[in-house]
Amino acid sequence: MNNPTSIDVAILGGGPAGCSAASWLGQLGLKTLLVEREPRLCAALAALDFTQDWVLGQPATRLADLAEQYAAQARATPGLALRLGAQVESARHSPEGWALQLAGGERVQARALLVATGLRLLRPSRYFASPHPRVMDAATLTARRATLPPGRVLLLGAGDNAAENALFLAERGFDVTVWARGGWRAQTHLAERAEAHPRIQLRLSTPLPDTLLPDADGVTVGAERFDHAAALLGFEPEPSAFALLDEHARQHAFVAGDASGRWHPCVQTALADGVQAAKQIEQALRPQAAAAPQRYNNRQVIHLQGLRFRANLGVLDFERTGPQPIQVDAEVNLGALPVVARDADIGHVLDYRRVRTAIIDECTAEHTDLVEALLGKLCNRLMSLPGVVGVRLKLTKLEIFPDCEVAISTELGAW
Ligand SMILES: Cc1cc2nc3c(=O)[nH]c(=O)nc-3n(C[C@H](O)[C@H](O)[C@H](O)COP(=O)(O)OP(=O)(O)OC[C@H]3O[C@@H](n4cnc5c(N)ncnc54)[C@H](O)[C@@H]3O)c2cc1C
User: Fold this and answer.
1) Atom of ligand 1 nearest to the CA of 259
2) Considering only CA atoms, which of 267, 197, 260 is closest in space to residue 53?
3) Which CATH number fits domain 125-233: 3.40.50.1970, 3.90.230.10, 3.50.50.60, 2.40.160.20?
4) Percentage of the chain with pLDDT > 70?
5) How far is ligand 1, taken at its centre, from the CA of residue 356, in Å?
6) For the packed helices 188-196 and 160-171, what is the interaxial angle rounded to 10 degrees?
C-alpha cells in the first residue's frame, strides 16, 4: 500500500471560504491539500451571473468573475495541492492528527482539518420529489430568471432571496405572488419595495401549499395556475462532510464559511472566515509562534552558514556514482518571540543543533535528482520544526564544475 500523502492541513470544500483559507495557509507556510467535489473551484459562485453591490470594492463585478479570481489566486498558492472532482470517504481523528481516505484510494495524513463545504438549499420532498423544470429552487431560479418568458410566478418564502427575486421578476413584467407561512424575513428595504410594487401580490402568514403539481404548461397550486413556481425556503449547512465525523472528530475540526452556519452567508463573510480559520489553525499547529507577544517585535532567526557535507544529488552520470560535496546556508524564522533576558530552559527554544541535524538527515537520506526537489524536502522538514514560520535556504554544489560553484536558493513561509 502507498504511503499516505502527509500535509499540515486538509480543507474540504473549495468555495470562497476554502480558497481564502488555502491562500492564507500557503502564506503562513503550511502545506495544504484542498478537496473539492466539483471539477472546479468556487463552482457555486461561478453559477451566479450577476453583480452584487454589497461586495466592497467590487460592486460592479459579476459574482461569477469573482469566483474565477478567487480560484485563480488559490490555484497559484505555493504549497497547495488540489484534488478536484474528489470526495473524502472517511475521516478519522487521533492524537497524531487526521487520517483521510479519498475515493480512488489516496490516503492523506493531516495535522488539521478544515470543513468549508458551504450550504445546501432546503428542497422539501413534497415539492421536489419528482424534479420538474417549472418548479425551481433558489439556485435554479437565479440561473434561469433572466431568460424565463414573463408570466405568473409563485415564490414560496419571504426571506432576502424571495424578496430580491420578486423585485427582479416584477421589473421584467412578471406577475409575482409571494407566499409564506410567516411574515417577512427579508431586509426591510427589500420588503418595503416588494410591498409597494404593483406587480407583486403578498400572501404572508398563510400555511404553505401541500403540493405543487407541474405539467408541460405550468404549475397547479390548489385552484390556481402559475407559469412557474420556486420554493425559496432557506438552507442548511451541507451535511456530507459532517456526516464523516464522529462526535470526537467534530470537536477537533475547524469550520469556515457558510458551513459554520453564518447568520449572513455571503462571499465576504466566507472570505473573512477563511482567514480567521487559517490563523486559528496556525495557532493550533504552532502554539509557540502564535502565543508570542507581538508587542516585543523581537523576531528571531536562526542562521546556519557554510554547513558543508557530502550528499547523493544530481542527474549527471558521475553524480550518480557517489556523493558530492555540497554547502547549505539556512535561515530559520521563528517569528515574534518574547525577549529572554536571562537563561532559560533549552527546551523552550528551538535548539539549533536540531536544525543542523535535520538538514544533514534530509540531504543524505537518499539520492535526489534535482536540487529543487531537495530544497523542497528541506523546506518541508524545517517548516515542521516547532515554532518555525519561515525558511530561507541556499544549496550549493561545490565541485560540479572546475571553474565555478552552482547554487539555488528558495524562500518559504513568513518573512
Ligand atoms: C442562489 C444564490 C445566490 C446568492 N447570491 C449571493 C449574492 O448575491 N452575494 C453574495 O455575497 N453571496 C451570494 N450567495 C451566497 C454565496 O454564494 C455564499 O455565501 C458563498 O459562496 C459561501 O462560500 P463558502 O466557501 O462558504 O461555500 P460555497 O461557495 O458553497 O463552497 C462550498 C464548496 O464545498 C464543496 N463541497 C460540498 N461538500 C463537499 C464535500 N463533502 N467534499 C468536498 N467538497 C464539498 C462544494 O462543491 C462547494 O464548492 C448566493 C448563493 C446562492 C445559492
Assistant:
1) 26
2) 267
3) 3.50.50.60
4) 95
5) 46
6) 40
